[in-house]
Amino acid sequence: MAAVSSSVASPSLRLSHTASNRRSLRRGVALRSPSLASDFRLSVHVGESVRRGLRVSANSAQVMEQPRREVGPKVSTVVDVDLGNRSYPIYIGSGLLEEHDLLQRHVHGKRVLVVTNTTVAPLYLDKVVTALTSGNSGVSVESVILPDGEKYKEMGTLMKVFDKAIESRFDRRCTFVALGGGVIGDMCGFAAAAFLRGVNFIQIPTTLMAQVDSSVGGKTGINHPLGKNLIGAFYQPQCVLIDTDTLNTLPERELASGVAEVIKYGLIRDAEFFEWQEKNMQALLARDPSALAYAIKHSCENKAEVVSLDEKESGLRATLNLGHTFGHAIETGLGYGEWLHGEAVAAGMVMAVDLSYRLGWIDDSLVKRVLTILQQARLPTAPPDSITVEMFKSTMAVDKKVADGLLRLILLKGPLGNCVFTGDYDRKALDETLQSFCKS
Ligand SMILES: NC(=O)c1ccc[n+]([C@@H]2O[C@H](COP(=O)([O-])OP(=O)(O)OC[C@H]3O[C@@H](n4cnc5c(N)ncnc54)[C@H](O)[C@@H]3O)[C@@H](O)[C@H]2O)c1
Ligand SMILES: [Zn+2]
């Protein structure tokens, strides 16, 4: 476990792991946030970079092999997200939807609302209802089936969840279950955060994107016509249940979209994981069960660790958004749903890498490795022709990472596995990157 260091604008702040924390990680003991304050040495500097905005360095952190924790006969791995009294397990394995006790132990109250969509419902809704109710006759399950697509991740569709819960007279002791990809997870989580000011909620992610990223960490929300994910809440689930068998029905393009986020973890903080991906991309795309399980576990471990250290994104967590500022501009500019989220992020990562190279922060061998792995994953490596410099600039101006009018970006710096979150970069280089990737 390498040190995680961050320096924050005003005053600047440095966090570094103590030896005892490193030892805990080596033993496979998860970091617990109540002990963070005492386990981290904290020094505060009032930096000169006040005007320039926040800057965080996230060094490569090898995720240690954790001892397998058997929960049921089929659960191969549990990754813990350590957030004090809001901690929760991520169960990862094949056939977990048949492990009824796993789900049932996280249900609060007697009433459950499953939120899903028109594509996922015919595939998995019955299975989930059975998992919730078998041997548990006291529980009643309602479901709301939303239209499918990113363009429905908005207020009107969200309202259908509230309509159903209110018409069904749900009270505070109920549980919302998100069954689907990231769109359903983000919407159901936000509905759970807002309904009666917060009810219990469970994530059952069914896309690779949701299994490696969106279901973990408690970011929930919807889009606004002017920008992605601008309305939402931090709201953690009770558990995340990943049944890797659900990926068998996922279209290829959706699988590749999830791979973009897997690649991201390697680039920002886990060089060893990136190297594993370079060797195993074909197996991953062929849905080799052990390759998928490895990628999901390591992605969840990386995400869980970052979220445990910085739940509300005061710095380190922002590094998970490598390529996303450019990517969101593509998604917004094209119209939601035209390009998949991971496709936009892939092109965005290439742009971030290009900018990092122009700034002299990485060498060209890393630029080539990023292009090669994205091509292997059959992901785009440039934005679509219709997106102009102006479109990038106007969407980037409402990005959540703008602070005091200054756009902060996640950029690679140093050897593979290192990145910075900073507003301190040459604006001319950003203009050059935009111009080199846009036709107009
Ligand atoms: N909250 C976060 O931290 C976070 C992180 C990353 C992405 N996201 C969000 O996640 C969304 C993208 O998620 P996504 O890529 O999962 O998209 P998605 O939810 O739209 O799912 C992709 C498609 O796959 C279908 N599908 C889902 N599971 C299936 C299955 N098992 N078999 C067959 N089809 C299936 C869906 O119905 C949909 O058509 C974006 O809105 C993005 O902003 C959020
Ligand atoms: Zn993403």
Automatic annotation (TrEMBL):
Function per UniProt: Catalyzes the second step in the shikimate pathway.
Q: Which domain of life is it from?
A: Eukaryota
Q: Name one Pfam family in it.
A: DHQ_synthase
The catalytic activity of this protein is classed by the Enzyme Commission as 4.2.3.4
Q: Which reaction does it catalyse?
A: 7-phospho-2-dehydro-3-deoxy-D-arabino-heptonate = 3-dehydroquinate + phosphate
Which pathway does the protein contribute to? Metabolic intermediate biosynthesis; chorismate biosynthesis; chorismate from D-erythrose 4-phosphate and phosphoenolpyruvate: step 2/7
Q: Which family does it belong to?
A: Belongs to the sugar phosphate cyclases superfamily. Dehydroquinate synthase family.
**Which Gene3D superfamilies has this protein been placed in?**
3.40.50.1970, Dehydroquinate synthase-like - alpha domain (1.20.1090.10)
Q: Name one GO cellular component term.
A: chloroplast
Please report the stretch or stretches of sequence annotated as the 3-dehydroquinate synthase N-terminal domain: 144-256
Keyword list (alphabetical) reads: Amino-acid biosynthesis, Aromatic amino acid biosynthesis, Lyase, Metal-binding, NAD
Task: Note whether Metal-binding occurs among the keywords.
Answer: yes
Q: Name one GO molecular function term.
A: metal ion binding
Q: Secretion signal: which residues?
A: none
Q: List residues of the 3-dehydroquinate synthase C-terminal domain.
A: 258-402
Q: What is this protein called?
A: 3-dehydroquinate synthase, chloroplastic
**HAMAP family attached here?**
DHQ_synthase
Say yes or no: keyword Lyase present. yes
Primary location: plastid
Q: GO annotations under biological process? A: amino acid biosynthetic process; aromatic amino acid family biosynthetic process; chorismate biosynthetic process
Q: Where in the cell is it found?
A: Plastid, Chloroplast
Q: Which NCBIfam families match?
A: aroB
